[in-house]
Amino acid sequence: xxxxxxxPTAAGQRIDVFSTDSKIESVETRSMAxxxxxxxxxxxxxxxxxxxxxxxxxxxxxxxxxxxxxxxTAAEDIPLDIxxxxxxxxxxxxxxxxxxxxxxxxxxxxxxxxxxxxCEGKLSGIGGVLRxxxxxxxxxxxxxxMVVAKNDTAHQGLAAQLADKTMxxxxxxICCGTLxxxxxxxxxxxxxxxxxxxxxxVLTTATGQKVRNAITYIEVLxxxxxxxxxxSARLETGRTxxxxxxxxxxxxxxxxxxxYGGASPAFLQEPxxxxxxxxxxxxxxxxxxxxxxxxPWPQWFKSAVASVALL
Length: 311
Fold this sequence. Notes:
Layout: E1 2-5, H1 15-21, H2 30-38, E2 42-44, E3 47-48, E4 60-63, E5 82-85, E6 89-94, H3 111-118, E7 143-149, H4 152-163, E8 168-176, E9 183-187, E10 190-192, E11 200-202, E12 211-212, E13 215-224, E14 228-235, H5 242-249, E15 275-283, E16 290-294, H6 299-310
Parallel strand pairs: 7-15
Antiparallel strand pairs: 1-4, 2-3, 2-4, 5-6, 6-7, 8-14, 8-15, 9-13, 10-11, 10-12, 13-14, 15-16
Helix pairs in contact: 1-2
């Protein structure tokens, strides 16, 4: 339990903003603060508050921080391609086809099952019993680099970097058609598709749907005879299916991504979007060291590039 008194300088702030700005232990991001508030763990005078409550000078706010839930996901001996590991985190190269965490239709055989075995259950509990250690995720058919937290301190530090956009993530992709501009900033908000709830879409607030800002920086690496373009995509935000949705939005869906309108020609060795998480950079949440990692193209990605180059 943590008790904080609101100073004069913070009067008028929303309580979720105040909770984050005050650097309260285990409340590193606004989303964490909102979750605690929604679950009734933030009170004033013994009464729960809403996330829109504006604090007043002298308010005494009590934070009751729940104990992390133990992970109940089964450990499975699944090989991992580990790029880096220490006592706080590990960086892995996720293969294409591997689901990140258990969910309906995939309760086992996931990356989390593999991590539970490798780390002997010693993973952060902030993500809950189904997502221990998972700070950010990749789609099943997207390969590449991810960072995993072994404890809550590391998780909070990494999540804070995601929130303040200081974690650096870059992908490579082959897109359909030719991008005329060498560099492109896509600033297009994303929300759940209004009809197909399994998909995301570029939306405006006028639709009445919940939308979140989404920004991606695209740079052309190579053009292939006006049929396909190899690009680098650097994320400023990290929304579900962000690169896939936004590239489709600008008329250049990712090759193989039939969900969002991308062609899946016969020369692709296997189905799925030609998208690979290539680079990752962050500040180590414990040591403060600047860390950068690269996951080279897997063979299936190399084959796709070679195939479009020959067309």
